[in-house]
Specification:
This protein is of the alpha/beta class. The chain is 47% helix and 12% strand. The strands form 3 sheets. Strands 1, 2, 3, 4, 5, 10, 11, 12 and 13 form a 9-stranded mixed β-sheet that branches. The relative contact order is 0.13.
Amino acid sequence: MAYTPYNDLHNFFNFMDKKKGGIVTKEQYKYNQYTKQNVRHRAIFKAVDSLTSKRERSCCVERSYVRNVYDYFTSSDDISQNGAEAEKINVSYITDWEKLHDSYVGTKKPEDLVVCYLSGPEPNNDFQELINLGILPHNIWAFESDNQVYKKAIAAYNQGEYPQPRILKQNIETFFQQTPKKFDIIYIDACGSIPSTQHALRSVFSVCQNHRLNSPGVIITNFAMPDIANEAIGDYYELISQYLFFKKYPFAEFEISESRIKNKEYDNILNNVTEKFDLYYGEFISAVLRDIPAVIVPVQRIAQNPYLYQLFDMIDINRVNEDFINISKGNSLARYFFTVNSLLETGLLDEKSRCFLNEIGNFHDLIKGLKLTVLLRKGKLRLKEDVQKIKEYFENNNSLYQFCDKPHSNLFFDIILNQLAYPMHNNILQNARYQYVAKSNHMFTDITVYDECRYIYEWLPGLHQIVSSFENNSWQYVFRFALDGLVKMRQNYNNEFFFQGSIVSNVVEGFSSKKLVERIVIN
Protein backbone atom coordinates (compact mmCIF):
# COMPACT_ATOMS: atom_id res chain seq x y z
CA MET A 1 0.00 0.00 0.00
CA ALA A 2 2.39 2.64 -1.22
CA TYR A 3 -0.18 5.39 -0.92
CA THR A 4 -0.33 5.39 2.85
CA PRO A 5 2.19 5.21 5.73
CA TYR A 6 0.33 2.29 7.28
CA ASN A 7 0.55 -1.33 6.18
CA ASP A 8 -2.82 -2.48 7.45
CA LEU A 9 -5.86 -1.32 9.35
CA HIS A 10 -4.35 -2.16 12.74
CA ASN A 11 -1.23 -0.10 12.06
CA PHE A 12 -3.40 2.68 10.68
CA PHE A 13 -5.22 3.15 13.98
CA ASN A 14 -2.03 2.79 15.99
CA PHE A 15 -0.62 5.57 13.82
CA MET A 16 -3.66 7.77 14.42
CA ASP A 17 -3.67 7.16 18.19
CA LYS A 18 0.03 7.92 18.53
CA LYS A 19 -0.08 11.02 16.36
CA LYS A 20 1.61 14.03 17.98
CA GLY A 21 3.11 11.80 20.66
CA GLY A 22 -0.02 10.87 22.57
CA ILE A 23 -3.56 9.54 22.49
CA VAL A 24 -5.93 11.65 20.44
CA THR A 25 -8.40 13.49 22.66
CA LYS A 26 -11.83 14.95 22.11
CA GLU A 27 -10.39 18.45 22.21
CA GLN A 28 -8.52 17.81 18.98
CA TYR A 29 -11.80 17.57 17.06
CA LYS A 30 -14.20 20.42 16.43
CA TYR A 31 -17.27 18.71 15.03
CA ASN A 32 -17.53 15.33 16.75
CA GLN A 33 -16.21 13.46 19.70
CA TYR A 34 -13.52 10.83 19.39
CA THR A 35 -15.89 7.91 18.78
CA LYS A 36 -17.36 9.64 15.74
CA GLN A 37 -13.90 10.50 14.44
CA ASN A 38 -12.74 6.93 15.09
CA VAL A 39 -15.59 5.47 13.04
CA ARG A 40 -14.98 7.99 10.27
CA HIS A 41 -11.33 6.89 10.11
CA ARG A 42 -12.32 3.25 9.96
CA ALA A 43 -15.10 3.71 7.39
CA ILE A 44 -13.16 5.81 4.89
CA PHE A 45 -10.00 3.75 5.22
CA LYS A 46 -11.98 0.54 4.72
CA ALA A 47 -13.69 1.94 1.62
CA VAL A 48 -10.47 3.12 -0.01
CA ASP A 49 -8.56 -0.03 0.91
CA SER A 50 -11.36 -2.25 -0.45
CA LEU A 51 -11.29 -0.56 -3.85
CA THR A 52 -7.51 -0.38 -4.23
CA SER A 53 -5.13 -2.84 -2.58
CA LYS A 54 -7.92 -5.31 -1.75
CA ARG A 55 -9.96 -4.72 -4.91
CA GLU A 56 -9.89 -8.37 -6.00
CA ARG A 57 -11.43 -9.43 -2.67
CA SER A 58 -14.22 -6.90 -3.09
CA CYS A 59 -15.71 -8.96 -5.91
CA CYS A 60 -18.50 -11.35 -4.97
CA VAL A 61 -16.72 -13.97 -7.10
CA GLU A 62 -12.96 -13.67 -7.14
CA ARG A 63 -10.97 -14.12 -10.33
CA SER A 64 -9.53 -17.41 -9.09
CA TYR A 65 -12.90 -18.98 -8.20
CA VAL A 66 -13.68 -20.80 -11.45
CA ARG A 67 -10.18 -22.25 -11.64
CA ASN A 68 -10.40 -23.28 -7.97
CA VAL A 69 -13.63 -25.21 -8.62
CA TYR A 70 -12.08 -26.81 -11.69
CA ASP A 71 -8.96 -27.82 -9.72
CA TYR A 72 -11.10 -29.16 -6.87
CA PHE A 73 -13.06 -31.48 -9.14
CA THR A 74 -10.19 -32.59 -11.37
CA SER A 75 -7.82 -33.33 -8.48
CA SER A 76 -10.42 -34.80 -6.11
CA ASP A 77 -10.67 -38.47 -5.18
CA ASP A 78 -14.46 -38.14 -5.44
CA ILE A 79 -15.80 -41.36 -6.96
CA SER A 80 -18.67 -39.50 -8.67
CA GLN A 81 -18.56 -38.30 -12.26
CA ASN A 82 -17.80 -34.71 -11.21
CA GLY A 83 -14.12 -34.92 -12.07
CA ALA A 84 -14.75 -36.43 -15.49
CA GLU A 85 -17.29 -33.74 -16.29
CA ALA A 86 -14.97 -30.95 -15.16
CA GLU A 87 -12.21 -32.35 -17.36
CA LYS A 88 -14.44 -31.75 -20.39
CA ILE A 89 -13.73 -28.03 -19.99
CA ASN A 90 -11.33 -26.58 -22.49
CA VAL A 91 -9.12 -24.59 -20.12
CA SER A 92 -8.97 -21.72 -22.63
CA TYR A 93 -12.58 -20.96 -21.61
CA ILE A 94 -11.44 -20.47 -18.01
CA THR A 95 -8.72 -18.15 -19.25
CA ASP A 96 -11.28 -16.20 -21.28
CA TRP A 97 -13.51 -15.85 -18.23
CA GLU A 98 -10.57 -14.58 -16.18
CA LYS A 99 -9.87 -12.00 -18.90
CA LEU A 100 -13.52 -10.94 -18.78
CA HIS A 101 -13.26 -10.65 -15.01
CA ASP A 102 -10.15 -8.47 -15.38
CA SER A 103 -11.91 -6.22 -17.86
CA TYR A 104 -14.73 -5.44 -15.43
CA VAL A 105 -12.79 -5.30 -12.17
CA GLY A 106 -9.42 -3.94 -13.25
CA THR A 107 -7.12 -2.16 -10.82
CA LYS A 108 -7.38 1.26 -9.22
CA LYS A 109 -5.13 3.46 -7.13
CA PRO A 110 -6.49 5.99 -4.64
CA GLU A 111 -5.98 8.79 -7.16
CA ASP A 112 -8.32 6.94 -9.55
CA LEU A 113 -11.25 6.93 -7.11
CA VAL A 114 -14.12 9.42 -7.31
CA VAL A 115 -15.94 10.18 -4.06
CA CYS A 116 -18.96 12.15 -2.91
CA TYR A 117 -20.34 12.91 0.53
CA LEU A 118 -22.77 15.11 2.43
CA SER A 119 -20.97 18.30 3.35
CA GLY A 120 -22.59 19.58 6.54
CA PRO A 121 -21.20 22.76 8.12
CA GLU A 122 -17.63 21.38 8.36
CA PRO A 123 -16.78 19.63 5.09
CA ASN A 124 -13.09 19.48 5.92
CA ASN A 125 -13.54 16.56 8.35
CA ASP A 126 -14.29 14.03 5.62
CA PHE A 127 -12.20 15.87 3.02
CA GLN A 128 -8.99 15.60 5.04
CA GLU A 129 -9.56 11.91 5.64
CA LEU A 130 -9.94 11.36 1.90
CA ILE A 131 -6.93 13.33 0.70
CA ASN A 132 -4.76 11.82 3.46
CA LEU A 133 -5.49 8.45 1.86
CA GLY A 134 -4.47 9.65 -1.58
CA ILE A 135 -7.80 10.72 -3.11
CA LEU A 136 -7.31 13.64 -5.47
CA PRO A 137 -9.19 16.78 -4.33
CA HIS A 138 -10.44 17.19 -7.90
CA ASN A 139 -12.28 13.87 -7.54
CA ILE A 140 -14.14 14.79 -4.35
CA TRP A 141 -17.69 16.15 -4.48
CA ALA A 142 -19.66 17.43 -1.49
CA PHE A 143 -23.36 18.32 -1.35
CA GLU A 144 -25.37 20.59 0.92
CA SER A 145 -28.93 21.73 0.23
CA ASP A 146 -29.58 23.84 3.34
CA ASN A 147 -28.75 27.47 2.54
CA GLN A 148 -27.36 28.43 5.97
CA VAL A 149 -25.33 25.24 6.34
CA TYR A 150 -24.01 25.68 2.80
CA LYS A 151 -22.78 29.17 3.65
CA LYS A 152 -20.93 27.80 6.69
CA ALA A 153 -19.39 25.05 4.58
CA ILE A 154 -18.13 27.54 2.00
CA ALA A 155 -16.85 29.81 4.78
CA ALA A 156 -14.82 26.93 6.23
CA TYR A 157 -12.21 27.65 3.55
CA ASN A 158 -10.36 30.94 3.22
CA GLN A 159 -10.33 32.86 -0.04
CA GLY A 160 -7.75 31.30 -2.33
CA GLU A 161 -7.22 28.28 -0.07
CA TYR A 162 -6.62 25.03 -1.88
CA PRO A 163 -7.15 22.09 -1.85
CA GLN A 164 -10.81 22.00 -0.96
CA PRO A 165 -13.75 19.85 -2.07
CA ARG A 166 -16.17 20.77 -4.83
CA ILE A 167 -19.21 21.80 -2.77
CA LEU A 168 -22.55 21.95 -4.60
CA LYS A 169 -25.64 23.60 -3.19
CA GLN A 170 -27.96 20.79 -4.21
CA ASN A 171 -29.83 17.90 -2.72
CA ILE A 172 -27.68 14.81 -3.32
CA GLU A 173 -30.71 12.77 -4.31
CA THR A 174 -31.61 15.32 -6.99
CA PHE A 175 -28.03 15.25 -8.23
CA PHE A 176 -28.17 11.45 -8.62
CA GLN A 177 -31.40 11.80 -10.58
CA GLN A 178 -30.28 14.59 -12.91
CA THR A 179 -26.51 14.32 -13.40
CA PRO A 180 -24.98 11.20 -15.04
CA LYS A 181 -21.93 11.13 -12.76
CA LYS A 182 -20.70 7.86 -11.22
CA PHE A 183 -18.70 7.44 -8.04
CA ASP A 184 -16.54 4.76 -6.46
CA ILE A 185 -17.38 5.76 -2.88
CA ILE A 186 -20.60 7.44 -1.77
CA TYR A 187 -20.72 8.55 1.87
CA ILE A 188 -24.23 9.29 3.14
CA ASP A 189 -23.84 10.57 6.69
CA ALA A 190 -27.52 11.40 6.95
CA CYS A 191 -27.81 10.98 10.74
CA GLY A 192 -31.57 10.41 10.44
CA SER A 193 -33.33 7.17 11.33
CA ILE A 194 -34.77 4.79 8.75
CA PRO A 195 -37.45 5.00 7.76
CA SER A 196 -38.30 8.60 8.57
CA THR A 197 -39.68 11.74 6.98
CA GLN A 198 -36.07 12.94 6.66
CA HIS A 199 -35.77 10.45 3.76
CA ALA A 200 -32.33 9.27 4.86
CA LEU A 201 -32.79 5.95 3.07
CA ARG A 202 -34.11 7.39 -0.19
CA SER A 203 -30.66 8.67 -1.15
CA VAL A 204 -29.38 5.09 -1.17
CA PHE A 205 -32.32 4.04 -3.33
CA SER A 206 -31.61 6.92 -5.73
CA VAL A 207 -27.96 5.86 -6.08
CA CYS A 208 -29.06 2.38 -7.12
CA GLN A 209 -32.04 3.40 -9.24
CA ASN A 210 -29.94 5.86 -11.26
CA HIS A 211 -26.88 3.63 -11.42
CA ARG A 212 -24.47 6.12 -9.84
CA LEU A 213 -22.06 3.65 -8.17
CA ASN A 214 -19.14 2.10 -10.02
CA SER A 215 -18.51 -1.61 -9.65
CA PRO A 216 -17.03 -2.66 -7.39
CA GLY A 217 -18.06 0.29 -5.27
CA VAL A 218 -18.74 1.23 -1.66
CA ILE A 219 -21.62 3.05 -0.01
CA ILE A 220 -20.94 4.29 3.52
CA THR A 221 -24.11 5.06 5.45
CA ASN A 222 -24.60 6.50 8.90
CA PHE A 223 -28.11 6.25 10.35
CA ALA A 224 -29.43 7.09 13.79
CA MET A 225 -31.56 4.94 16.04
CA PRO A 226 -35.11 6.27 16.43
CA ASP A 227 -35.88 8.36 19.48
CA ILE A 228 -37.57 5.67 21.54
CA ALA A 229 -38.99 8.20 23.99
CA ASN A 230 -40.64 10.46 21.42
CA GLU A 231 -41.45 8.34 18.34
CA ALA A 232 -44.12 5.74 17.65
CA ILE A 233 -41.66 3.02 18.54
CA GLY A 234 -44.29 0.29 18.37
CA ASP A 235 -44.50 0.85 14.61
CA TYR A 236 -40.74 0.36 14.35
CA TYR A 237 -41.06 -2.89 16.30
CA GLU A 238 -43.67 -4.17 13.85
CA LEU A 239 -41.80 -3.06 10.72
CA ILE A 240 -38.49 -4.60 11.75
CA SER A 241 -40.08 -7.79 13.10
CA GLN A 242 -42.05 -8.33 9.91
CA TYR A 243 -39.05 -7.73 7.67
CA LEU A 244 -36.77 -10.05 9.64
CA PHE A 245 -39.50 -12.68 10.11
CA PHE A 246 -39.82 -13.26 6.38
CA LYS A 247 -36.04 -13.27 6.04
CA LYS A 248 -35.73 -16.07 8.58
CA TYR A 249 -38.96 -17.99 7.95
CA PRO A 250 -39.89 -17.58 4.25
CA PHE A 251 -41.88 -20.85 4.29
CA ALA A 252 -43.79 -20.25 7.55
CA GLU A 253 -47.57 -20.48 7.73
CA PHE A 254 -49.22 -17.44 9.32
CA GLU A 255 -52.45 -15.51 9.59
CA ILE A 256 -53.14 -11.80 9.59
CA SER A 257 -55.37 -10.57 12.40
CA GLU A 258 -56.07 -6.87 12.68
CA SER A 259 -52.70 -5.33 11.75
CA ARG A 260 -50.50 -8.14 13.03
CA ILE A 261 -49.03 -11.39 11.80
CA LYS A 262 -50.18 -14.34 13.89
CA ASN A 263 -47.38 -16.88 14.16
CA LYS A 264 -45.35 -18.29 17.05
CA GLU A 265 -41.97 -17.59 15.43
CA TYR A 266 -43.08 -14.07 14.61
CA ASP A 267 -44.07 -13.47 18.23
CA ASN A 268 -40.60 -14.60 19.31
CA ILE A 269 -38.94 -12.22 16.87
CA LEU A 270 -41.19 -9.36 18.01
CA ASN A 271 -40.24 -10.03 21.63
CA ASN A 272 -36.56 -10.06 20.74
CA VAL A 273 -36.85 -6.83 18.77
CA THR A 274 -38.63 -5.18 21.70
CA GLU A 275 -36.02 -6.31 24.22
CA LYS A 276 -32.90 -5.72 22.09
CA PHE A 277 -34.02 -3.02 19.72
CA ASP A 278 -30.58 -1.63 18.91
CA LEU A 279 -29.30 -5.07 17.82
CA TYR A 280 -32.23 -5.82 15.52
CA TYR A 281 -32.46 -2.27 14.20
CA GLY A 282 -28.86 -2.62 13.08
CA GLU A 283 -29.66 -5.93 11.37
CA PHE A 284 -32.63 -4.33 9.65
CA ILE A 285 -30.44 -1.52 8.29
CA SER A 286 -27.92 -3.98 6.85
CA ALA A 287 -30.65 -6.15 5.33
CA VAL A 288 -32.27 -3.20 3.58
CA LEU A 289 -28.90 -2.02 2.26
CA ARG A 290 -28.43 -5.47 0.71
CA ASP A 291 -31.95 -5.76 -0.66
CA ILE A 292 -32.38 -2.38 -2.36
CA PRO A 293 -29.68 -2.83 -5.04
CA ALA A 294 -29.87 -6.62 -5.35
CA VAL A 295 -33.65 -7.12 -5.47
CA ILE A 296 -35.89 -4.07 -4.97
CA VAL A 297 -34.48 -1.84 -7.72
CA PRO A 298 -33.95 -4.72 -10.23
CA VAL A 299 -37.50 -5.99 -9.70
CA GLN A 300 -38.86 -2.52 -10.42
CA ARG A 301 -36.80 -2.47 -13.62
CA ILE A 302 -38.29 -5.83 -14.55
CA ALA A 303 -41.78 -4.39 -14.23
CA GLN A 304 -40.89 -1.51 -16.55
CA ASN A 305 -38.97 -3.44 -19.22
CA PRO A 306 -41.00 -4.26 -22.36
CA TYR A 307 -38.36 -6.78 -23.49
CA LEU A 308 -39.67 -9.22 -20.91
CA TYR A 309 -43.03 -9.36 -22.68
CA GLN A 310 -41.25 -11.48 -25.26
CA LEU A 311 -41.37 -14.24 -22.67
CA PHE A 312 -45.13 -14.67 -22.28
CA ASP A 313 -48.45 -14.11 -24.02
CA MET A 314 -50.67 -13.28 -21.06
CA ILE A 315 -49.81 -11.73 -17.74
CA ASP A 316 -51.98 -13.17 -15.01
CA ILE A 317 -51.14 -10.76 -12.22
CA ASN A 318 -54.67 -9.74 -11.29
CA ARG A 319 -54.96 -12.29 -8.50
CA VAL A 320 -55.92 -11.55 -4.94
CA ASN A 321 -52.92 -10.80 -2.74
CA GLU A 322 -53.53 -13.81 -0.53
CA ASP A 323 -52.76 -16.05 -3.52
CA PHE A 324 -49.41 -14.35 -3.97
CA ILE A 325 -48.63 -14.64 -0.29
CA ASN A 326 -49.10 -18.39 -0.59
CA ILE A 327 -47.38 -19.02 -3.90
CA SER A 328 -44.34 -16.95 -2.92
CA LYS A 329 -43.33 -19.30 -0.09
CA GLY A 330 -39.57 -19.52 0.06
CA ASN A 331 -39.09 -16.08 -1.50
CA SER A 332 -38.60 -13.87 1.53
CA LEU A 333 -38.86 -10.37 0.06
CA ALA A 334 -41.74 -11.19 -2.26
CA ARG A 335 -43.67 -12.70 0.63
CA TYR A 336 -42.94 -9.71 2.84
CA PHE A 337 -44.10 -7.17 0.26
CA PHE A 338 -47.19 -9.16 -0.72
CA THR A 339 -48.15 -9.25 2.96
CA VAL A 340 -47.48 -5.53 3.35
CA ASN A 341 -49.56 -4.86 0.25
CA SER A 342 -52.45 -6.79 1.75
CA LEU A 343 -52.22 -4.75 4.96
CA LEU A 344 -52.00 -1.55 2.93
CA GLU A 345 -55.09 -2.32 0.85
CA THR A 346 -57.14 -3.13 3.95
CA GLY A 347 -56.03 0.03 5.75
CA LEU A 348 -54.11 -1.87 8.45
CA LEU A 349 -50.53 -0.96 7.58
CA ASP A 350 -48.75 1.03 10.30
CA GLU A 351 -47.24 4.46 9.76
CA LYS A 352 -43.56 3.43 9.72
CA SER A 353 -44.17 0.66 7.21
CA ARG A 354 -45.91 3.16 4.92
CA CYS A 355 -42.97 5.52 5.42
CA PHE A 356 -40.60 2.70 4.45
CA LEU A 357 -42.51 2.07 1.23
CA ASN A 358 -42.15 5.75 0.33
CA GLU A 359 -38.36 5.41 0.57
CA ILE A 360 -37.92 2.59 -1.94
CA GLY A 361 -39.40 3.82 -5.19
CA ASN A 362 -42.58 2.98 -7.05
CA PHE A 363 -44.42 0.41 -4.92
CA HIS A 364 -46.81 -0.46 -7.76
CA ASP A 365 -43.86 -1.42 -9.97
CA LEU A 366 -42.28 -3.35 -7.12
CA ILE A 367 -45.42 -5.45 -6.59
CA LYS A 368 -45.87 -5.93 -10.33
CA GLY A 369 -42.26 -7.04 -10.77
CA LEU A 370 -42.46 -9.44 -7.84
CA LYS A 371 -45.68 -10.92 -9.21
CA LEU A 372 -44.08 -11.45 -12.61
CA THR A 373 -41.01 -13.17 -11.19
CA VAL A 374 -43.03 -15.38 -8.84
CA LEU A 375 -45.51 -16.39 -11.56
CA LEU A 376 -42.68 -17.16 -13.97
CA ARG A 377 -40.93 -19.30 -11.40
CA LYS A 378 -44.12 -21.16 -10.50
CA GLY A 379 -45.03 -21.84 -14.14
CA LYS A 380 -48.24 -19.81 -13.92
CA LEU A 381 -47.66 -17.65 -16.99
CA ARG A 382 -48.43 -18.80 -20.51
CA LEU A 383 -45.04 -18.65 -22.22
CA LYS A 384 -44.39 -17.85 -25.85
CA GLU A 385 -43.85 -21.02 -27.86
CA ASP A 386 -40.14 -20.44 -28.39
CA VAL A 387 -39.58 -19.66 -24.69
CA GLN A 388 -41.58 -22.75 -23.68
CA LYS A 389 -39.18 -24.89 -25.72
CA ILE A 390 -36.21 -23.37 -23.90
CA LYS A 391 -37.89 -24.06 -20.57
CA GLU A 392 -38.51 -27.68 -21.57
CA TYR A 393 -34.83 -28.02 -22.49
CA PHE A 394 -33.90 -27.29 -18.87
CA GLU A 395 -36.69 -29.35 -17.33
CA ASN A 396 -36.61 -32.44 -19.53
CA ASN A 397 -33.02 -32.69 -20.75
CA ASN A 398 -31.34 -35.49 -18.85
CA SER A 399 -28.00 -34.74 -20.50
CA LEU A 400 -27.50 -31.62 -18.33
CA TYR A 401 -25.09 -32.81 -15.68
CA GLN A 402 -26.18 -32.14 -12.12
CA PHE A 403 -23.03 -31.55 -10.06
CA CYS A 404 -24.62 -30.40 -6.76
CA ASP A 405 -27.80 -28.89 -8.27
CA LYS A 406 -29.34 -29.86 -11.59
CA PRO A 407 -29.98 -26.75 -13.75
CA HIS A 408 -33.69 -26.01 -13.52
CA SER A 409 -35.78 -23.81 -15.80
CA ASN A 410 -35.87 -21.24 -12.99
CA LEU A 411 -32.14 -20.81 -13.51
CA PHE A 412 -32.89 -19.85 -17.10
CA PHE A 413 -35.44 -17.23 -16.03
CA ASP A 414 -33.08 -15.86 -13.38
CA ILE A 415 -30.35 -15.55 -16.01
CA ILE A 416 -32.58 -13.54 -18.36
CA LEU A 417 -34.03 -11.32 -15.63
CA ASN A 418 -30.73 -10.45 -13.98
CA GLN A 419 -28.90 -9.93 -17.23
CA LEU A 420 -31.27 -7.05 -18.02
CA ALA A 421 -32.17 -5.78 -14.54
CA TYR A 422 -28.59 -4.99 -13.49
CA PRO A 423 -28.58 -5.98 -9.82
CA MET A 424 -25.75 -4.92 -7.53
CA HIS A 425 -24.83 -7.76 -5.22
CA ASN A 426 -23.42 -7.33 -1.76
CA ASN A 427 -20.05 -8.77 -0.77
CA ILE A 428 -20.91 -9.63 2.81
CA LEU A 429 -17.39 -10.81 3.62
CA GLN A 430 -15.93 -7.36 2.98
CA ASN A 431 -18.61 -5.29 4.72
CA ALA A 432 -17.87 -3.55 7.98
CA ARG A 433 -20.49 -2.41 10.49
CA TYR A 434 -20.18 -0.17 13.55
CA GLN A 435 -22.38 1.13 16.33
CA TYR A 436 -21.45 4.08 18.52
CA VAL A 437 -22.91 6.98 20.48
CA ALA A 438 -22.49 10.53 19.18
CA LYS A 439 -23.53 12.92 21.92
CA SER A 440 -26.70 11.09 23.00
CA ASN A 441 -27.56 9.54 19.64
CA HIS A 442 -27.01 5.85 18.92
CA MET A 443 -25.51 5.67 15.43
CA PHE A 444 -25.16 2.78 12.99
CA THR A 445 -22.47 2.95 10.31
CA ASP A 446 -22.37 0.42 7.46
CA ILE A 447 -19.55 0.17 4.94
CA THR A 448 -21.22 -1.88 2.22
CA VAL A 449 -19.28 -3.27 -0.75
CA TYR A 450 -21.27 -3.78 -3.96
CA ASP A 451 -20.50 -5.67 -7.16
CA GLU A 452 -22.54 -5.85 -10.37
CA CYS A 453 -20.93 -9.21 -11.22
CA ARG A 454 -20.99 -8.39 -14.92
CA TYR A 455 -18.17 -10.91 -15.34
CA ILE A 456 -20.98 -13.44 -14.84
CA TYR A 457 -23.87 -11.75 -16.65
CA GLU A 458 -21.82 -10.66 -19.67
CA TRP A 459 -20.66 -14.26 -20.12
CA LEU A 460 -24.26 -15.02 -21.00
CA PRO A 461 -25.63 -14.90 -24.56
CA GLY A 462 -29.06 -13.61 -25.56
CA LEU A 463 -32.40 -15.26 -24.91
CA HIS A 464 -32.49 -17.54 -27.96
CA GLN A 465 -28.81 -18.48 -27.67
CA ILE A 466 -29.04 -20.00 -24.18
CA VAL A 467 -29.64 -23.57 -25.36
CA SER A 468 -26.80 -23.39 -27.87
CA SER A 469 -24.40 -22.13 -25.22
CA PHE A 470 -25.46 -24.79 -22.71
CA GLU A 471 -24.74 -27.43 -25.35
CA ASN A 472 -21.10 -26.30 -25.10
CA ASN A 473 -19.84 -27.95 -21.90
CA SER A 474 -16.89 -25.62 -21.55
CA TRP A 475 -19.05 -22.51 -21.73
CA GLN A 476 -21.77 -23.98 -19.53
CA TYR A 477 -19.51 -25.29 -16.78
CA VAL A 478 -17.46 -22.11 -16.57
CA PHE A 479 -20.68 -20.14 -16.16
CA ARG A 480 -22.06 -22.51 -13.53
CA PHE A 481 -18.76 -22.59 -11.62
CA ALA A 482 -18.75 -18.78 -11.49
CA LEU A 483 -22.41 -18.69 -10.50
CA ASP A 484 -21.67 -21.04 -7.60
CA GLY A 485 -19.53 -18.30 -6.09
CA LEU A 486 -22.37 -15.79 -6.29
CA VAL A 487 -24.85 -18.31 -4.87
CA LYS A 488 -22.58 -18.95 -1.88
CA MET A 489 -22.18 -15.22 -1.29
CA ARG A 490 -25.90 -14.44 -1.20
CA GLN A 491 -27.84 -17.58 -0.30
CA ASN A 492 -28.13 -16.74 3.42
CA TYR A 493 -29.25 -13.17 2.78
CA ASN A 494 -30.89 -12.77 -0.66
CA ASN A 495 -32.79 -15.91 -1.65
CA GLU A 496 -34.82 -14.33 -4.45
CA PHE A 497 -32.76 -15.65 -7.37
CA PHE A 498 -30.61 -18.66 -8.29
CA PHE A 499 -32.38 -21.16 -6.05
CA GLN A 500 -30.65 -24.09 -7.73
CA GLY A 501 -27.24 -22.85 -8.77
CA SER A 502 -24.83 -24.67 -6.42
CA ILE A 503 -22.01 -26.71 -7.94
CA VAL A 504 -19.98 -27.63 -4.86
CA SER A 505 -21.51 -28.68 -1.54
CA ASN A 506 -21.55 -26.13 1.27
CA VAL A 507 -19.67 -28.55 3.51
CA VAL A 508 -16.53 -28.36 1.34
CA GLU A 509 -13.94 -26.02 2.82
CA GLY A 510 -13.39 -22.98 0.63
CA PHE A 511 -16.78 -23.30 -1.06
CA SER A 512 -19.19 -22.86 1.85
CA SER A 513 -21.90 -20.19 2.04
CA LYS A 514 -20.69 -16.89 3.42
CA LYS A 515 -21.56 -15.27 6.74
CA LEU A 516 -21.93 -11.59 7.54
CA VAL A 517 -19.49 -10.12 10.06
CA GLU A 518 -20.89 -8.92 13.37
CA ARG A 519 -21.49 -5.24 14.04
CA ILE A 520 -18.72 -3.76 16.21
CA VAL A 521 -19.66 -1.49 19.10
CA ILE A 522 -17.22 1.44 19.43
CA ASN A 523 -16.99 2.89 22.92
